Task: structure prediction
Amino acid sequence: MTEIAKCARPTCNCVPADGEQYCSSTCADAKGVTELTCQCQHAVCQGVTPELLLVNESNASFA
Result:
């Protein structure tokens, strides 16, 4: 079974682009910093699961 690569920032749960270690420059810049939570602002690190994203998009109303 192939394991999906995770961002190298220990507190981040995002998946970086192919060939990259970090998902964003925010995570790359935080290398070596001790922290409790990720601050990259991606939905996964803000507690939003893919399932919630799909529900929110299907219930969205646009004016």
About this structure: Residues 24 and 40 are 7 Å apart (CA to CA). Helices lie at 25-29, 50-59. The two ends are 45 Å apart (CA to CA).
